[in-house]
Amino acid sequence: MSVVAPGTPDAGRRPEFEREPLDARGIGEIERPLPLIERIVHDDTVQRVGILLALVLCWELYARWLDNALLFPTFTETMGVFGRDIASGVLPDRILTSLKSLAIGYAAGVALAGVFTTIAVASAVGTRLLSTLTAMFNPLPAIALLPLALIWFGLGIPSLVFVIVHSVLWAVALNTLSGFRSVPETLRMSGRNFGLKGARYVGLILIPAAFPSILAGLKIGWAFAWRTLVAAELVFGVSSRSGGLGWYIFEARAELETARVFAGLFAVIIIGLVIEAVIFRTIEARTVTLWGMQR
Predict the structure, then answer these.
(1) What is the DSSP string of 153-193?
(2) Are 116 and 109 in contact (CB under 8 A)?
């Protein structure tokens, strides 16, 4: 057996493993660009717009078949009322009033959820405290607290903020705690090996690992807050002369203006779609999707 000295051109070569490269030209296309039509059809935005257009078409056809504007106005009639109220400034003023109350209540609810979750993560007693409070208050409808809110805070924004905080707090806290509990022990040990403790440990290890659950809690809390706000405004608004979207819908119902009721509901839906698409999808794309934590 011959030995090849190190440093020679044949050093390290294994002739028995040498293979001639195959000519792949006869195999066919390994990767080909999709046609323009197929790319458009499979585009996420195009699919969502197509679904919305299909729903609008069903709405218009059913309303024309029913032919009763008092019960079910057409989409074109609803959009006419919607456009007129936008141009007159009535609807934008109601939307801003609702969003102001929503922003205050949602921010306060998320902040309180962070405090409760921090206490729960810090000790076993805190975990039992949050679990008990969540079991007690999470099933309690926020709208059921309206009488107490009126007694304690009167007719105004503080009452709305109170019920919004209740609807946001428990959903966000429960999802955040569940996310922290589901962090793999391997990641926890890695953080400790790097000497991370306290706020740095939570910020660099626990929050990124649990962020899918945290983001889900924020989405659920937002949905609960928006529904609670509209329902509360349907009952008492902000004041007798300047209410939010819920009060706008209530006034239209009292005056039997069904198209205006649908316009208010359409505004509620549009705001929900915009916040989901612009805010939450942007956060999701720049965090959990970018990190490869979900598809």
Answers:
(1) H-SSHHHHHHHHHHHHHHHHHHHHHHHHHTS-HHHHHHHHH
(2) no
Q: Do 130 and 178 meet the contact criterion of CB atoms below 8 Å apart?
A: no
Give me the half-sphere count of Cα atoms (radius 13 Å) on the Cβ side of residue 190: 9
* Tokens matching residue 11: 């050093």
Those residues with Cβ within 8 angstroms of residue 114's Cβ, 6 or more apart along the chain or in another chain:
176
Contacts of 34 (CB under 8 A, 6+ apart): 42
Contact criterion met (CB below 8 Å) for 130 and 177: yes
Ordered by start, the domain boundaries in the chain are 34-67, 82-286
Considering the entire predicted model, what is its pTM? 0.77
Using CA atoms, how far apart are residues 258 and 280, in angstroms rounded to an integer?
A: 32
SS3 state at 38: helix
Residue 241 CA to residue 239 CA, distance in Å, equals 6
Residue-wise pLDDT tens digits, 242-278: 578 888 888 888 888 888 899 988 899 889 888 888 8
> Selecting from 1.20.140.10, 2.60.40.1120, 3.60.15.10, 1.10.3720.10, what CATH number does the domain 82-286 have?
1.10.3720.10
pLDDT digits 0-9 by tens, 113-168? 988 888 887 778 888 888 888 888 888 888 888 888 888 887 778 888 889 999 99
Angle at alpha carbon of residue 30, lines to 29 and 31, rounded to 5° = 90
| Residue 6, phi then psi, degrees to nearest 5 | -60, 140
